[in-house]
TrEMBL record:
Domain of life: Bacteria
Name recorded for this polypeptide: YozD family protein
Length: 56
């Protein structure tokens, strides 16, 4: 199995969730959307789908 670099942007995730929820008839609050994006990021970390790296 090969390794690839993937960059996850929680702001992009938040925007995606916002747009999708609007399409489905929901009116999400901005803080709720940010929480969903953070939860998604944490889920990907927990499942070892991604690894968090810090720029120095």
């Amino acid at each position: 199995m090969r390794e690839i670099d993937v960059f996850i942007d929680t702001e992009e995730i938040a925007d995606f969730f916002y747009q999708e929820l609007i399409k489905r008839g929901f009116i999400p609050a901005e803080d709720e959307i940010r929480e969903l994006a953070d939860i998604t990021f944490e889920y990907l970390l927990k499942k070892d789908i991604i690894a968090e790296e810090w720029d120095e």
